[in-house]
Amino acid sequence: MTTRIFGSGIRRREDPRLITGRASYTDDIKLPGMVHAAILRSPYAHATITSIDTSEAAGQPGVIAVYTGEDTDGVLNGLPCAWLIPNSDLKTPDHPAIAKDKVRYVGDAVAVVVAESRYQAEDALEFISVEYEPHDAVLNPKEATQDGAPQLHDDVPNNVAFTWAVAGGDAEAAFADADVTVSDTITLQRLIANPMEPRSAIAQWVSQTGDLTLWSTSQNPHIARFLTSVVTGVGEHKIRVIAPEVGGGFGSKIPFYADEAIAAFCSMQLGVPVKWTETRSENYLITTQGRDHIEEVEMAATSDGKITGLRTTVYAGLGAYLSTASPGVPTILHGLMYSGSYDIPNISGTVYGVFNNGTPVDAYRGAGRPEATMLIERLVDLMAAKLGMDAVEFRRMNLIPKFENGHDVATGLTYDSGDYHATLDICLNAADYSALREKQAKLREQGRYMGIGVSTYVEICGLGPSQVAGAVGFQGGLWESAIVRFHPTGKVNVMVGSSPHGQGEETTFAQIVAHEVGVDVDDVEIIHGDTDLTPMGWGTYGSRTTAVSGAAVTLATRKIKEKSKALAAHLLEAAAEDIEYEDGKFFVRGSPDQAKTIQDIALMANVAWDMPEGMEPGLEASAFYDPPNFTYPFGAHLAVVEVDPATGEIDLQKYYAVDDCGPQINPMIVEGQVHGGVVQGVGPALWEGVVYDDDGQLLTGTMLDYALPRADGFPDIHVQSNVTPSPHHPLGLKGVGEAGTIASTPTVYNAVMDALRPLGVTRIDMPFTPEKVWRAINSAQNGA
Amino acid sequence: MFPAQTEYHRPNSVTEAVDLLASNEGAKVLAGGHSLIPLMKLRLVAPTVLVDIGRIEALKGIEATDGGLSIGALTTQATIAASDLVNERAPLLAEAAGMVGDPAVRNRGTIGGNISHSDPASDLPAVLTALGATLKVTGKGGDRSVGASDFATGLLENILGEDEILTSVSVSSIPSGAGSAYVKFAHPASRYAVIGVAAIVGVSDGRCSSASVVVGGVETTPTRASSVESALLGSDLSDEALDKAAAAVAGDFQGDAMSDIFASAEYRQAVAAVYVRRALAAAVSRAG
Questions:
Q1: What structural domains and CATH numbers belong to chain A?
Q2: Which of A289, A329, A432, B121 is most exposed, with minimal Cβ within 10 Å?
Q3: Residue B1 has pLDDT above 90, yes or no
Q4: Angle at which helices A739-756 and A667-686 pack, to 10 degrees?
């Protein structure tokens, strides 16, 4: 017990089973009598269904049933949207699990076949005849709002699902009075989340008891239970949702999908368990995507380099229907972050949420914050260039000075704590920034184009105070709960409502318990992902699990400690105030040799042979933690690239990440999160992006076309950190799951644009594929 | 993924395999599976009969021949890349085989399957064309030999008859004193060649005595860069000479350059000159 467990980079206990392929995922589960569903999907992005004939499919070998939207109509309720942002005129058109009259994106469910095997179900799909009357499709979120654009939903004019605004200060005056302004249009292309495990669901309806069990690849099984109840009409108390091992989600496993509802419907119709698992091709078509922003943005500043204002007009594509959380992503999680890490007194932004004929868009790692950070960091670089200032010096002048307990920004948020100059300095020192600039100047003389990009970001994590959740229209709370249960032997189970799926909380939560009451970390087991076994919680997303659920674990463990003290006092025949605690031992002040260990206490509490009067037996505590504020991790990232002007190829040569997520429970896991996040954020800058053709057909439908980042595209990522505790969190934690993704896209974007500046290139749409870069160079050089 | 139903055969000899192909219309040969299986998973192809030649030992292995090499069609890219014999006699082929896809692909994918698929973005067709390889094809009517440059006839099309299997590849050793190189602009997702340049340059008394340069990935079949070769022959191989030769590749494209969402025809043809230049520099540096 001499090793300090909090802050120790112990190995993740999850990893042996995960990396040896022995973990059990939803699709690995085989239930007696289980049958298989395959879903027929629309080949058109926008069409009216004129007829469906399933008779031939119904007669195929092994086929048990074929259902269409006519069968589910009136039985299943529409899929609900759970983030109804206020003051936005939000429209919530019906989203049936199986389309009945109209399809609105390639992949919209049209019919389902249930068969004895998946192969038989897939084969039978080919025998369903559907006649469509195709309509024009629209994908570009700005074009979709124009008069004359194809209309997706009858009751949503110009496809505008909502108009949301944020304002602070007087942006109009700031721009009117500005010495200097810069503007740009930034496109954040659609991204596919690409978890290693595709989505899967098994529904088991037991008609004798009226119980519905759903095994589901969910990041938030308690929300899934609630929404399953809404859609099926089965009471929450009769539904159990189990998220077994979940192989990553990156936000795409937050929503409640048509497919889960269809599996539940089929099982309730047939009385047998029904499994549905998406293929990778289906994942690309139907699982929610990220981003899809067109951002028209401008910044105002004084001639001596003080930012005075920021204005935005953002067209955020939502896809064909509202997904579970989609309205909140480009608004609350995006627009409220427009100040970034800078002191910007005047801000005004308008966000149009726009239906388009693509896969529904929802949270994807960073969710709204990468889209905000991108526009701020780009404008900061543009402004520095226009003022003839070094981009770093310009940042330094405008960063919010160090604060330890609250700083209000113009959008209305109160950041918890920050030391932005510190992370910037650490980053610049690590990279030897001035030497890099010297090298860049030398290379330019040789006709070589090296670029240096910096991003000083802040993000919003630890979602969040439930009162705020209610105020911004989230149809739920955002607290978490935990139960800590000591067994007679001193071993511990911790039940949490959050649902980690790769983030490592089975390890870090055990570290918290070990840190708080001195048990061996290996004596603590974390139980999650099953609504019948765990207390209520709102799930794992938004870098909130360690920050919020971890706080609940901390508070519950502290209750254990208090009870242990009282019991120790009784057993040691002393007053509770005379009991001291150290390293898992309770003793009377001055007599550490007469200690009761936490294991002694656990045994006595469980057998209850000698309890103080009025004390209940057992050693178990639960805690509910509703955070008083969000947390605001931050940092500074720097990238070095070289662009080959002959081909447009970009070589990412160096990457430095300095993040401040508060105290670190496990620095190895923090570093892993930063690595993964950086890679996932560089992807859209250099390689990744969904491409649809004009008819709404997905052209990047496989991994042969959709370019995910690969290890050989990266240099070693230099990771460092600083520690600025959150003033309001029991452990000072902030969260780190999305930091890398938020910072790295603008870092690399800025580096490439810095490299191309002497060539006269002013803008390129992401991803910066070689041909786009090559064309931008050529047209700049030809004066086009 | 869930391919359509298919009848599966695993013959033990080439004769048996050819008989199966001849008697089953629409049958497809399965070797390493790295071209065919992905198409079957997407149900883009649904062969009624699969003839798995993967266990025919006679099709595996690399042998020295008089003046070169003979490589069985079932030999994997990984085996070719690691072969001392190939590295010694046809280092260009070993280099390119080591750049196909990724390690998992190279461990399963075979030279015969790669060539028989006739994917223009594949690495080996251009390399075998540059090496002047001879492909042996076996069918009901017996064996025939085809030059590598005559094998592919278009996008995913070649001279193989319904009952024929590519059984081996013969390559001559590169001339002594020659240097070779394969350089590739890999697609970031698929790692297929957006542009792949195979170059063999012979040097004698400081001048170019022989040149074979072939560009893959740009057109539907490998493009022999005759203009580049002519410009090189007899030149002093100086930087200026290589610049001039590489630029000449623009004249070698036949007008059927491919275009996709990642790289347009215009871009491929323009950037091919850069890759030709890199290939020439590497080949020349290895000569002697």
A1: 17-135+196-248+253-286 (3.90.1170.50), 368-461+632-781 (3.30.365.10), 479-625 (3.30.365.10)
A2: A432
A3: no
A4: 40
CA B53 to CA B39: how far, in whole Å? 18
Contact check, Cβ <8 Å, B263/A770 = yes
Distances (CA, A) of A714 to A77, A425, A667, A740: 47, 23, 21, 14
Per DSSP, the three-state class of A530 is strand
Question: What pLDDT is attached to residue A3?
Answer: 57
Tens digits of residue pLDDT in A697-712: 999 999 999 999 999 9
Question: What beta strand segments (E) does A617-747 contain?
Answer: 619-625, 634-644, 649-660, 717-721
Structure tokens at B15: 């004769």
Among the partner residues B42, B192, B270, nearest to A281 by beta-carbon distance? B42
Alpha-carbon A239 to chain mean position: 26
Mutate to test the interface with B, among A647, A692, A769 (most CBs of B within 10 A): A647
Mean pLDDT across the stretch A635-658?
Answer: 98
Residues A124, A57: contact at Cβ < 8 Å? yes
Could you tell me which CATH number the domain at B178-286 has? 3.30.390.50
Interface touch B2/A119, C-beta < 8 Å: yes
Output the CA torsion sign for B83, B84, B87, B90.
Answer: negative
Residues B189 and A705: beta-carbon distance below 8 Å: yes
Beta-carbon contacts of B239 under 8 Å, excluding residues fewer than 6 positions away, are: none
Chain A residues whose beta carbon lies within 8 Å of the beta carbon of residue B262: 705, 707, 769, 771
Output DSSP code: residue B14. H
How far apart CA A315 and CA A720 sit, in angstroms, is 36
Q: A488-526, pLDDT tens digit by residue?
A: 999 999 999 999 999 999 999 999 999 999 999 999 999
- The answer to whether A219 and A501 are in contact (CB under 8 A) is yes
Which residue in B262, B268, B275, B276 has the most chain A C-beta atoms within 10 A of its own C-beta, making it the best mutation to test that interface? B262
CATH of B57-172, one of 3.30.465.10, 3.40.50.300, 3.40.309.10, 3.30.565.10: 3.30.465.10
Give residue B288's pLDDT: 81
Nearest to B1 among A281, A704, A713 (CB): A281
Model pLDDT for residues A463-496, shown as the tens digit of each residue = 989 999 999 999 999 999 999 999 999 999 999 9
Checking if the pLDDT of A69 tops 80, the result is yes
pLDDT computed for residue A4 by the predictor? 83
List C-alpha distances in Å: A54 to A37, A272, A418. Answer: 15, 21, 61
What does the block give as tokens for A178? 């500005």
pLDDT of residue A2: 45
- DSSP letters along A52-106, please? EE-HHHHTSTTEEEEEEHHHHBTTBPPPPPSB--SSS--------SS-SSEE-ST
Dump pLDDT digits (tens) for B35-87. Answer: 899 999 988 899 999 999 999 999 999 999 999 999 999 999 999 999 999 99
**CA terminus-to-terminus distance, chain B:** 51
Region A377-401: mean pLDDT is 98
Q: Count CB atoms within 10 A of the CB of residue A571.
A: 17
pLDDT in tens, A403-432: 999 999 999 999 999 999 999 999 999 999
Mean pLDDT calculated for residue range A219-236: 98
* pLDDT score at A784: 53
Structure tokens at A755: 């490299």
ipTM: 0.96
| Apex A396 CA angle, A393 and A401, nearest 5 | 165
Cα angle value A687/A692/A696 (rounded, 5°):
165
CATH architecture of B7-52: 2-Layer Sandwich (3.30)
